[in-house]
Amino acid sequence: SGAGGDAGGGPALGVLRRVFGYDAFRGAQQEIIEHVIAGGDALVLMPTGGGKSLCYQIPALVRGGVGVVVSPLIALMQDQVDALRALGVRAGFLNSTQDSEERRLVEAEFLAGELDLLYLAPERLRVEATLRLLDRGTISLFAIDEAHCVAQWGHDFRPDYLTLSQLHERWPDVPRIALTATATEATHTEIAGRLNLKDARHFVASFDRPNIQYRIESKNEPKRQLLDLLRTEHAGDAGIVYCLSRASVEKTAEFLVKNGIEALPYHAGLDARTRAEHQSRFLREEGLVIVATIAFGMGIDKPDVRFVAHLDLPKSLEGYYQETGRAGRDGLPSTAWLAYGLQDVVQQRRMIDTSEGDEAHRRRLAAHLNAMLALCETVECRRVQLLAYFGEKSTACGNCDSCLTPPSAWDGTVAAQKLLSTIVRLKRERGQKFGAGQITDILLGKKTAKVIQFDHDQLSVFGIGTDLREGEWRGVVRQLLAQGLVAVEGDYGTLVLTDTSAEVLGGGREVMLRREPERPARAAKAKSG
Ligand code: ADP
Ligand code: ZN
After folding, report:
1. Which ligand 1 atom sits closest to the C-alpha of 325?
2. Rounded to the nearest whole angstrom, what is the distance from the C-alpha of residue 481 to the centroid of ligand 2?
3. Apex 58 CA angle, 52 and 63, nearest 5
4. Nearest Cα residue to atom 25 of ligand 1
5. Which of the four, 70, 93, 349, 452, has the lowest number of CB atoms within 10 Å?
6. Cα separation of 25 and 129, whole Å?
7. Which UniProt keywords apply (predicted)?
8. Spatial CB neighbours of 337, under 8 Å, sequence gap ≥ 6
C-alpha cells in the first residue's frame, strides 16, 4: 500500500488508486482495461452500476492520446466532465448545448493534446468538421457508451448511432470499446454486427443484482398501494416512482406530498430549469422521492436509491431491468416494486396496434411486451426468469415475491372456458361489443343497469361464474390477455377471441393461472371482500 503508484500492480491499478481513489478492481474491470490498453477491441455487457466507466477512462489515461467517448446522455456530460476534472482528469465535451465559442475552446484543447477524455454526442460525428478535427489529434481509444442504442431490436434505438460504424473504417488502428447494460442475445449480436466488432472480445458480467428484491403485485388502488409500501418499508428513503404519463406523474407526486412524503415530479413537460433543479435535489438531498416518466434516470448515479416503484407496466424487460437497476447501486438491500393490472395490458396492446411503423416493428413491440407480461404472470422465481431472458441460468433466489410468498398455480381451464363462451355469446347474439367489466358482471350474475339494458341477464352464461370473486375474474382476464388467449380491440377495450381461443373452448388446451394473495404479503391489512 502507499502512494508509490505503479509499484506491483501495473499502470492500471496505479491509476485506479491514485486518480480514482479506489483500492481494487471490481469483477472483470481489470481484464477489460488491460485488454483495451493492449489495443484490443471489447464489447462490455455489464449491469447498471457495475462500473463500466472506468473500463474506458483508465485505458484512456494509460494510453497516449485522447480517449473519445460517444454518449447519448447530453444532459449529463457537463456533470461527468466536472466530476472527472475534480479528480484531476483533463476532460471536455462537444455537444449541441454549447455555443461556438465553448466548442472552439474544447477543440483547441483537443488539438493541443491537453485532454485525456473527450465526450461527444453521436450526432457530432455526422458533421464532417468533427471527423476532420479528430483526424488532426491523437486518439487513444473510442468508447461507445450505451451501445444498445445502435440496435433496432432494442428498446432505445437512435439512428445517429448507425454512423458509428465509420469509426473503424476511418481509424482502423484505434481500439474500440462498446459498453451497455442491455444484454439480450439479440441486442448483443446486433451491436457486434452494426459496429463491426466481430473481432472484439466479449466481456459478459452477471446481470444479477442480488440485493434488489423484485416484487410484482396486481394493481387495485395503485397510489394507496404505493403509499403502503413507502410507509411500511421505505420511510425516509430515497426512491424513484415511474409512471407512464405526465399527468399521472403530477397526480402521484401531489398525492405523496399530501400524505407527508417529500416527492418531486420529473417529466419532459416541465421546463428545463425545473427538471434540472429536481434532478439535482434528488441527487444531493437525502430521502427524496422522485416521481418520473422514463425520461428520468439514464446515467443517474445515485448509490443509495432504496426503491424503484413502477405504477405502470414497462414496455419491455430491458426497460424494466434498467429502471429497477437504478436501485441499490451501493449493494444494500433495495426494492423493485411493480403494480400492474388489466388496464395496463389493454392500454399497451392498443398502443402497439396503433403505433407507427411497419408490421415487423409492431411484432417486435409485441414480443417485448409479451416477455414483460410473462415475468408478471410467472409462478416461478422472478429473478430466474429475468436472468434467463438475458441468457443467464440461475436457481431460485430467495429474494423475490415468488420465492418469499410462493403463489400457487391453479387450473383455470374451466374459468377460461366460461369467460370465452360469454364473449362468444355476446358476439353471436347481439353484434355488440363489451369490455372486461360487462363480461365480469354477466359471469357474476349482477343485474346492473347495463346488464338489464342489453338483456344480458337472459343469457345462458348469466351467473355461471359466482365461484370466483370479481378480483379473481379480473386476474383471469388479465392472464388470458397475457397468454394471448383473448385480445382487446378498439378504444373501449372490447374483448375478442384469438386464434388460440378455440383450443381452450374445445377442451384441447389446459390453462394454468397464477393465484395471488388477495392483498400482497408485506402490506397485508384486514380488508374484506
Ligand atoms: P455503470 O456505468 O456501469 O452504470 P459506473 O461506471 O457509473 O457504472 O460505476 C458505478 C459506481 O461504482 C460509481 O460510483 C463508480 O465510481 C463505482 N465504482 C466503479 N468501479 C469501482 C471500483 N473498482 N471500486 C469502487 N467503486 C467503483
Ligand atoms: Zn426468487
Report:
1. 4
2. 24
3. 135
4. 22
5. 452
6. 38
7. ATP-binding, DNA damage, DNA recombination, DNA repair, DNA-binding, Helicase, Hydrolase, Isomerase, Metal-binding, Nucleotide-binding, Zinc
8. 215, 216, 217, 229, 307, 308, 309, 310
ipTM: 0.98
State the DSSP code for 299: T
Residues with CB under 6 A from ligand 1: 22, 25-26, 29, 46, 48-54, 301, 329
Question: Cα–Cα distance between 367 and 377 in angstroms, integer?
Answer: 15
* 3-class DSSP state of 410: strand
Cell numbers describing residue 291 = 416521481
Cα 39 to Cα 52, 139, 304, 480: the distances in Å are 18, 12, 36, 53
How many whole angstroms separate alpha carbon 467 and alpha carbon 385?
32
Closest CA to 408 of 328, 315, 509, 517: 517
Residues 263, 266, 271, 272: is their CA dihedral positive or negative?
positive
Shortest-distance atom of ligand 1 to CA 48: 4
Distance 2 CA to ligand 1 centre (A): 22
pLDDT of 275-302, one tens digit each? 999 999 999 999 999 999 987 877 677 8
A 10 A CB-CB count for 523 gives 15
Q: Which atom of ligand 1 is nearest to the CA of 52?
A: 3
211 alpha carbon to ligand 2 midpoint, in Å?
Answer: 12
List helix spans (H) across 9-139: 10-18, 29-37, 53-62, 74-86, 100-111, 128-136
Q: How far is the CA of 297 from the centre of ligand 1 (A)?
A: 16
Q: What is the pLDDT averaged over residues 458-468?
A: 94
The alpha carbon of 450 is separated from its chain's Cα centroid by a whole number of angstroms, namely 40
- Per-residue DSSP letter, 406: P
The 3-state secondary structure of 84-109, one letter per residue: HHHCCCCEEEECCCCCHHHHHHHHHH
Residue 5 scores a pLDDT above 70: no
Name which of 158, 161, 160 is nearest 193 in CA terms.
Answer: 161
pLDDT value for 252: 98
Residue closest by Cα to atom 23 of ligand 1: 25
- Ligand 1, atom 10, lies closest to the CA of 49
What span, in angstroms and rounded, lies between the C-alpha atoms of 315 and 345?
Answer: 10
End-to-end CA distance of the chain: 65
Q: In what order do the strands lie in the sheet with 289-292?
A: 212-218, 334-340, 307-310, 239-242, 289-292, 263-266
- In this predicted structure, which of 126-140, 388-402, 441-455, 511-525 has the lowest mean pLDDT? 511-525
pTM of the predicted protein model: 0.77
Per-residue pLDDT, averaged over 223-228, amounts to 97
Alpha carbon of 236 to ligand 2 centroid (Å): 26
